[in-house]
Structures are given as structure tokens and as C-alpha cells.
Specification:
The chain has 5 helices and 7 strands; from the N terminus they run ααβαββαββαββ. The chain is an alpha+beta fold. The strands form 2 sheets. It has a 5-stranded mixed sheet, covered by helices on one side. A two-stranded antiparallel ribbon has the order 1-3. It binds adenosine-5'-diphosphate.
């Protein structure tokens, strides 16, 4: 009966979590849909006559639809990942090569944002067993965030090294941007969690708040651990420790 009680309370916790997820997801999807509906109505009710206004409203509709598409794609990826549905066979992956590729890709974006991107990659690291596209996504999310939340003139560093604990490889992205307040830090890996008081670099599209939760799922699916430390106005460090295959 003890085992049964345990199972029942775990089931209850899952149901509660699912309910919260559905509520959050619906809320997040409803906001852009409301904007699209209001703008479309206004256009039909005469806003179309004014070329400036109609151009602006069309732009807003497109922007919100883009956001919806991104969010739905993220949600699909997340649920696929959590269901362990990924067709690809795990392969041996060289993290130094992967990191170097990602660095090249992001260097251009960082330059454009006026952020100094540096990398520190240990050579001859043991390989990791996993899914390359998924691991790439972890790098992308961390670097994208670091650049997004670091003001022009700031610095971001990508490093990949063996950890002190044997058998693990640490991927780390540090920035000297705005940082995350201690009351928000424990929540940033939650789905849909965004720190509203920290606006991203102007002109950038607001995220869905799903990026870090996807990254964490990927790292955990690879048998790894993910964490973060931060200090307001000093910067943030995200790290992911992944077990080496050999
Ligand atoms: P988003 O799509 O909003 O970036 P994430 O899940 O990737 O979603 O991140 C969640 C929140 O964590 C962000 O909205 C932001 O408030 C905060 N955050 C993430 N990375 C950083 C960083 N490097 N510096 C400051 N805040 C960050």
C-alpha cells in the first residue's frame, strides 16, 4: 500500500504539472492570437484606407504569426524530446569541433551586436555519445541568450573543457551582461519563464521562454546536468556537464 500511495501521489503531481503547462501554453498562444484578431478586424473596419496604418498593422500581424510559429515548433520539439521520440541514432560527437563550428556561426552575429565573442576550447577532448542537432541547439540557445542580454561593448565567452570530476565535459557560456536577479535565477529553466524586467537588446524579438527548458531537457537526455550562476549587472554563466563516452 505504501508503493501504491507513492505512485498515486506521483501521478497527482504529474497531473498538476500538466494542468499548469496547458494553462501557461494557452495563455502564451492567446496573446499573439488576440493581437492578430484585433488588427485584422481594424483593417476590415476601415484601417485599410490609410496606407501607413495598414502597413503597420500588417507588419504586426506578420510578427505575431512568426512568434506563434516559433512557439508551436518549440512546443512540438519539447514534447517530442520529453517523450524520447527522436529518430536519430546516437553518434560519437567531438565537442571541440562542434563548439568551433558554433563559434564561427555566432562570431558574425556577435560582431554585428558589438559584443566581443571569445572561445576557449580544450583540444583532444573525449567524444560524447548523442544527437548532434540537439547538442547544437543547446549551444545555440546559450549563445543566442548571452548575446541578446549583453549590451554592446560587452563580452561573451564560450568554453569547452574537461571538468574536475572525471569523465565529464563542461560546456560553458559566460557573459558580462545585465545578469539575472537571485529571485529569478532558480526559475529560468522553467517553461515559458521570462524575466520581464530585463528587456533584450532593442529590435530583437521577444523569446518564448522555452529555450532554456528545451536545452535542459536535451542535456538531461544525454545523461548530463545543467546549471547557472549570475550576478546582477556583472553577468551570467550557464554550464552543461555531459558525460564523455569513453
Ligand atoms: P527566451 O526565449 O525568453 O530567451 P529562455 O528560456 O532562453 O527564453 O530564457 C529564459 C529567460 O532567462 C529569458 O527571458 C531571460 O530573462 C533570462 N536569461 C537567459 N539567458 C540570460 C542571460 N545570458 N543574461 C540575462 N538573462 C538571461
Amino acid at each position: 500500500s505504501e508503493a501504491f500511495n507513492k505512485m498515486a501521489s506521483r501521478l497527482q503531481a504529474n497531473v498538476t504539472e500538466l494542468r499548469a503547462f496547458v494553462a501557461n501554453a494557452s495563455h502564451e498562444l492567446r496573446t499573439p492570437l488576440t493581437v492578430v484578431k484585433l488588427r485584422a478586424e481594424a483593417l476590415q473596419d476601415g484601417a485599410m484606407e490609410d496606407p501607413d496604418i495598414s502597413k503597420r498593422f500588417m507588419g504586426e500581424i506578420e510578427h505575431e504569426v512568426d512568434r506563434l510559429v516559433r512557439m508551436v515548433n518549440d512546443l512540438l520539439d519539447l514534447s517530442r524530446m520529453e517523450a524520447g521520440m527522436d529518430a536519430e541514432q546516437p553518434k560519437l560527437i567531438d565537442m571541440s569541433t562542434l563548439a568551433a563550428e558554433v563559434y564561427e556561426t555566432f562570431k558574425i552575429r556577435a560582431d554585428r551586436a558589438g559584443v566581443n565573442l571569445e572561445c576557449d576550447i580544450e583540444p583532444d577532448l573525449p567524444p560524447i555519445m548523442g544527437n548532434e542537432d540537439q547538442l547544437m541547439r543547446v549551444f545555440y540557445n546559450l549563445l543566442d541568450n548571452a548575446i541578446k542580454y549583453t549590451p554592446s561593448g560587452g563580452k561573451v565567452e564560450l568554453s569547452v573543457k574537461k571538468t574536475q570530476t572525471d569523465g565529464y565535459i563542461r560546456t560553458q557560456v559566460s557573459d558580462n551582461g545585465q545578469g539575472i536577479a537571485p529571485e529569478h535565477l532558480p526559475h529560468v529553466f522553467e517553461r515559458f519563464y521570462r524575466v520581464e524586467t530585463t528587456p533584450a537588446r532593442s529590435g530583437l524579438i521577444r523569446g518564448s521562454g522555452l529555450g532554456l527548458s528545451i536545452a535542459k531537457s536535451i542535456v538531461e537526455n544525454h545523461g548530463g546536468v545543467m546549471g547557472a550562476s549570475s550576478e546582477i549587472d556583472a553577468g551570467t554563466t550557464f554550464w552543461a556537464d555531459l558525460p564523455a563516452a569513453v
